[in-house]
Specification:
Layout: H1 2-8, H2 50-58, H3 65-74, H4 79-91, H5 105-114, E1 121-127, E2 132-138, E3 144-151, E4 157-160, E5 164-166, H6 175-179, E6 181-184, H7 187-200, E7 208-211, H8 221-232, E8 244-248, H9 252-260, E9 266-270, H10 276-282, H11 291-305, E10 309-315, H12 323-333, E11 338-344, H13 358-370, E12 375-377, H14 391-398
Parallel strand pairs: 4-7, 7-8, 8-9, 9-10, 10-11, 11-12
Antiparallel strand pairs: 1-2, 2-3, 3-4, 5-6
Helix pairs in contact: 3-4, 7-8, 9-11, 12-13
The structure holds iron/sulfur cluster.
């Protein structure tokens, strides 16, 4: 059993935080007079107003390869120019339009003027000895997001991406949830995280991507779906859908849409506990849909794509780290093509919960494995770099004027 459990310690499902899930009120934020968000794009007000919203929706990397060809043609260029733009963006991964040197200067100028690319300024980089790099990126409008590259000596790597600035799901144990919702990320800002990480970690040729950073990805489907297309299109970034996992706090309509859209990416559900009342307490979004319905929809998703859905559980010392909780999870995991990922809590300010000790986790894993349920434990990678999603942003927001940052880049 000991050996089997050791092999069960997975890194492919590692997540730097407990991301994932909705319809609570959006936190009030400062916006220019008159800006109430964009009704046509469903983009909520940006921290620096509607101009910033329209800027990021025009970025070239919002467009799928076929759309880039259409764009080139609409600008009076031949279609091969669109393919050149696509290759520059998604194969060569250029950071600026100036680097698209195979395009005529006037076309580059036009693309710069009318479209542009998002910028990712590193406000902070936290690196741990075990090769995790956690980036705090500042976007063009000053919004802060986190992305993490977890590299392995074996060459495997997992990149954790954000889908929103803040999050409206308000999970009690999550630093991002405490920020409230600030704004949606655009497709270009989602894809841009991958391209930026690639520029910084060029040796990671085939990373696993997990949408487990800041935000609830299924609360931003308008941006997520095109991003998945660009990430998986052979003419785009060309990653296998099997290397991509979307994690949700349980938005069943979003799961259904993702299934109907046939993207084929992996699905993870932030379940946290098999006790319905306890789940509602920890994750307010759980009040919207009965756990039974959530698991039925998740099971259909797994059967449809013939891949197991991960039930993720933030394990909190003294709360859900005992064998009773493991038995509840076992009962639920038998209801569909599920595997379980136990995620020891990364404690945050404002939530009275501690990380469980390894003996409790071992006992839970032993019980689940002995009943045939594939169970992994997120390893500690990233913990020492403020790994829970939203922690860097929250710290940055609280940092007193003049206090040193972790590491400026
Ligand atoms: S509050 Fe949002 S980001 Fe945090 S765990 Fe919940 S769904 Fe994920």
């Amino acid at each position: 059993m000991r050996q089997r459990r050791a092999s069960a310690i997975s890194d492919s499902n590692s997540r730097p935080g407990l991301c994932a899930a909705a319809s609570m009120p959006i936190m009030p934020i400062l916006v220019p007079d008159g800006c109430r968000g964009c009704p046509s794009t469903h983009v909520p007000p940006a921290s620096r107003g509607c101009q910033a919203v329209s800027d990021r929706l025009r970025h070239l990397s919002n467009l799928r390869p076929a759309e880039l060809v259409q764009l080139a043609e609409s600008l009076g260029a031949r279609s091969f120019r669109g393919r050149q733009i696509t290759r520059a963006l998604y194969e060569r991964k250029v950071a600026t339009i100036d680097e698209m040197t195979d395009l005529p200067a006037d076309l580059r100028e036009r693309l710069e003027q009318d479209h542009g690319l998002p910028h990712f300024t590193v406000r902070q980089l936290s690196e741990s000895e075990d090769l995790s790099s956690k980036y705090l990126f500042e976007l063009d409008d000053g919004a802060l997001i986190e992305s993490v590259a977890m590299q392995r000596p074996t060459g495997r790597s997992t990149w954790c991406l954000s889908s929103q600035v803040g999050c409206r799901m308000a999970c009690t144990f999550c630093a991002t949830g405490r920020m409230g919702m600030v704004r949606q990320l655009s497709t270009s800002e989602i894809v841009g995280q991958v391209l930026e990480l690639w520029r910084r970690h060029p040796s990671d040729t085939h990373p696993n991507l997990v949408f487990m950073g800041m935000g609830e990805p299924l609360d931003n489907l308008d941006a997520l779906l095109p991003a998945l297309d660009i990430l998986t299109d052979e003419s785009g970034i060309g990653l296998s859908a099997r290397r991509i996992t979307v994690s949700t706090a349980g938005l069943v309509d979003g799961i259904r849409t993702l299934m109907q859209q046939e993207r084929g990416v992996g699905l993870a559900i932030s379940l946290t506990t098999g006790d319905e009342a306890e789940r509602r307490e920890l994750m307010p979004v759980a009040g919207q849909v009965p756990m039974r319905e959530l698991l039925e929809v998740a099971a259909s998703y797994g059967r449809h794509f013939r891949r197991k859905v991960t039930l993720e559980c933030a394990i909190i010392a003294g709360r859900n780290d005992d064998l009773d909780h493991a038995r509840r999870l076992l009962k639920l995991a038998r209801k569909g093509p599920f595997k379980i990922n136990l995620i020891p809590l990364n404690p945050i300010d404002g939530f009275a919960g501690e990380r469980p000790d390894s003996s409790s986790l071992d006992a839970m894993v032993d019980l689940l494995w002995s009943e045939g349920i594939v169970t992994t434990v997120r390893d500690s990678q990233g913990r020492e770099v403020d790994a829970a999603c939203g922690q860097l942003v929250r710290k940055q927001q609280r940092r007193p004027e003049g206090a040193p940052r972790n590491r400026a880049v």
